[in-house]
Amino acid sequence: xxxxxxxxxxxxxxxxxxxxxxxxxxxxxxxxxxxxxxxxxxxxxxxxxxxxxxxxxxxxxxxxxxxxxxxxxxxxxxxxxxxxxxxxxxxxxxxxxxxxxxxxxxxxxxxxxxxxxxxxxxxxxxxxxxxxxxxxxxxxxxxxxxxxxxxxxxxxxxxxxxxxxxxxxxxxxxxxxxxxxxxxxxxxxxxxxxxxxxxxxxxxxxxxxxxxxxxxxxxxxxxxxxxxxxxxxxxxxxxxxxxxxxxxxxxxxxxxxxxxxxxxxx
Length: 266
Ligand SMILES: C[S@@+](CC[C@H](N)C(=O)[O-])C[C@H]1O[C@@H](n2cnc3c(N)ncnc32)[C@H](O)[C@@H]1O
What we know:
Blueprint: H1 4-7, H2 29-34, H3 41-49, H4 51-64, H5 68-84, H6 93-104, E1 108-112, H7 118-126, E2 131-136, H8 150-159, E3 166-170, H9 173-183, E4 189-194, H10 200-210, E5 214-223, H11 233-243, E6 247-252, E7 259-264
Parallel strand pairs: 1-2, 1-4, 2-3, 4-5
Antiparallel strand pairs: 5-7, 6-7
Helix pairs in contact: 3-6, 4-5, 4-7, 6-7, 9-10, 10-11
The structure holds S-adenosylmethionine (SAM).
C-alpha cells in the first residue's frame, strides 16, 4: 500500500510542456504599450498633493474666492496645509487641474461647466498660453450663487495672466458638443474638464462625447464624483472608464466632493 506522502506527489510527467513565450519585444510594440502619456495618474495624484503644488496654488487661489463656496474651500486648503504640511493628502478639481496643466502643458483645453472661471483660471495659472474652449449655459443663480457669464470669466482669465485665446460656447453642452465635433471631427484636446450638467444621463453624455476627442497623453478631469447631491456620479465615471479601455483612471472620494481623472494612454 502507498503511504500518504507518496500518494499526494504531483505527477510532473503528465504536465504538458509550456508553449514558448514570445520574445520580449523592442519598439514599436514597446512604444505602443508604454503609451503616449507623459504622466500617469498615480504620479499626477502625487504631484497634485505635493507641498510645492499647494504653495503655488495658495499664491493665487484667494483671488478666485469670490463666492461663499470658493471662500469656504480656500480656508479649508489653508487650514489643512497649516495643520498637516506635506503629509496632507487631498484631491479636488483645483489641485488636479493645476498639476495636470503643469505636466501636460496643454495647447488646447476644453472646459464643460465654467461658472465664475475658478477651474479655467487654475489651468491658466499653470499654463498661461493655453487656448481654451469654454462651454456653459450660465444657469442663473447656479447652486444659489451668482453666475455672471463670459465677460466676467474673460476678465478673470486676464487677471490670472492668460495669454492664449478663449472661445466661449454659450448654451447647452448636449447640443454644442455634438455640433462642435461634427464640424471638427479631428479636434483633439490635451486637457478636458467635465463639470457641467450634474444629472446622471447628462454627465454621462458629456463624458461620452468628449473622450474620443482627448489627445493621446491628454488628461480628463471629472468633478464631484462623491457629491452628496449627485451620488450616482461615481458610477457614471466608472462606467465611462470601463467603456473606454484607452483611459487609465484614478478616483478620489475620501474628503470633499471628490474627483475622477484619467490619462489617455494611446
Ligand atoms: C459646478 S459649475 C462649474 C464650476 C467650475 N468648473 C469651477 O470649478 O469653478 C457648473 C456649471 O455648468 C453649467 N451647466 C450645467 N448644465 C449645463 C449644460 N447642460 N450645458 C452647459 N453648461 C451647463 C452651469 O451653468 C454652471 O455654470
